[in-house]
């Protein structure tokens, strides 16, 4: 996704969903504010497709399935506060569900129990994906075991894994010879396959990661 542009007033989650389901464009929702999602750059799209192809094949015949682009994920408290709004609806680049899906309502377009979320970072949203989004995900998605942030500017992936203690540990990967291993779904992808057809001729803009995040991240 690209940098969202906020609309002006606060909306309830129900108002957002009514508008979103009638809209031809995608928007995310954070605590009453609706954000436009702009288009993606070609490297972003190529990386997403590469991951979808590689992981999709590996998940064939398993209890897990992959969703891309159009699946919303809700991360918020239940029951929701009436006011002010406290909720998040996002569109991860890739979502992996294992077992039976749990959904926000009968439309079954808002997933509540993802196991793996993968985001391909854009320059304008990298900090948001790493901080606020990750905080919401690890707070309100108890089924989530892996949060994976993929750079589109260099062969580099930050893989956050949930430990048995409930803390989160960072496994950074760099270089085309590295391998992304997602043990929770029995998957593995070479970074050379993740970045197939991607040319690194863009400015290398990466999220700023505090040194403290090299240790397990707690809720």
Description of the structure:
The longest helix is centred in the N-terminal third of the chain and has 18 residues. 21% of the residues lie in helices and 26% in strands. It is built from four helices and 13 strands. With 219 residues, the protein is an alpha+beta fold. A six-stranded mixed β-sheet has the order 3-6-8-9-10-11, with helices on both faces. The protein has a five-stranded mixed β-sheet with strand order 2-1-5-4-7, with helices on one face. The protein has a two-stranded antiparallel sheet with strand order 12-13. The radius of gyration is 17 Å and the shape is globular.
Topology:
Blueprint: H1 13-22, E1 27-30, E2 33-36, H2 42-59, E3 64-68, E4 72-74, E5 88-90, E6 94-98, E7 110-111, E8 116-120, H3 126-140, E9 146-150, E10 156-162, E11 168-174, E12 179-182, E13 187-190, H4 191-194
Parallel strand pairs: 4-7, 8-9
Antiparallel strand pairs: 1-2, 1-5, 3-6, 4-5, 6-8, 9-10, 10-11, 12-13
Q: What key attributes describe this structure?
A:
219 residues; alpha+beta; six-stranded mixed sheet; five-stranded mixed sheet; 4 helices; globular; disordered C terminus
Helix content: 10-25%
- Portion of residues in beta strands equals 25-35%
Strand order of the largest sheet: 3-6-8-9-10-11
- Please give the count of helices: 4
Cα radius of gyration in angstroms: 17 Å
Strands, total number: 13
Mean pLDDT: 88
For the largest beta-sheet, the strand count, sense and barrel status come to: 6 strands, mixed
Class per helix and strand makeup:
alpha+beta
Low-confidence parts: 1-7, 205-219
Q: What is the 3D form?
A: globular
């Amino acid at each position: 996704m690209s940098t969202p542009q906020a609309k002006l007033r606060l909306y309830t989650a129900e108002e957002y969903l009514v508008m979103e389901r009638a809209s031809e464009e995608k928007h995310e929702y954070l605590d009453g504010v609706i954000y436009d999602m702009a288009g993606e750059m070609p490297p972003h799209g190529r990386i997403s497709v590469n991951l979808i192809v590689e992981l999709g094949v590996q998940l064939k015949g398993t209890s897990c399935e992959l969703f891309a682009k159009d699946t919303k994920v809700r991360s918020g408290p239940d029951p929701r506060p009436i006011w002010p709004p406290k909720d998040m609806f996002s569109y991860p680049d890739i979502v992996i569900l294992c077992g039976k899906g749990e959904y926000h309502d009968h439309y079954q377009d808002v997933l509540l129990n993802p196991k793996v979320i993968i985001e391909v970072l854009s320059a304008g949203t990298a900090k948001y994906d790493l901080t606020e989004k990750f905080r919401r995900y690890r707070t309100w998605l108890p089924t989530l075991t892996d949060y994976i942030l993929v750079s589109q500017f260099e062969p580099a992936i930050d893989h956050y894994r949930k430990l048995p203690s409930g803390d989160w540990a960072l496994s950074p990967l760099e270089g085309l010879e590295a391998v992304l291993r997602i043990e929770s779904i029995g998957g593995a992808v070479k970074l050379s396959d993740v970045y197939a057809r991607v040319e690194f001729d863009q400015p290398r803009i990466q999220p700023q990661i505090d040194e403290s995040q090299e240790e397990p991240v707690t809720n």
